[in-house]
User: What shape does this take?
Amino acid sequence: MRKLTLSTAETIISAAFEKAAELSLKPLTVVVLDAGGHAIALKRQDGASIMRPQIATGKAVGALAVGTGTRWLNANAETRPHFVNALNGASGGAIIPVPGGVLVKNEEGETLGAVGITGDTSENDEACAVAGIEAVKLVADCG
Assistant: This one.
């Protein structure tokens, strides 16, 4: 099992920012967590609003909490709101159930961590997370 290192996390973040520049997105905040939910790296672009680190982390934590990307949580927030509310309550309000939280997996399907991105639309946040993960030759699970 390959572990996420600081160098790998920094490459993920750089590639995500490159994708954001390519798409002319609003300022992003990106966090990379290990499989245990501990932050490896977090960067906030100039102009990002003040709660963006918490939102990015909430997206990544949400992905780790359910074992798939937060696109799944978003769908369940619409179809099973009581479940998502209970999950968020059990986590102490730590989960942000919208796209932009993407699991990082190796080729064997093992979860190595998660990337959380916020700042633009949830779909654009997710696209930047995928670009970052693919830049380090790992597998993105959006849910």
Summary: Residues 6-22 form the longest helix (17 residues). The chain has a mean pLDDT of 97. The beta strands are 29-34, 39-44, 101-105, 111-118, 139-141. The longest strand covers residues 111-118.
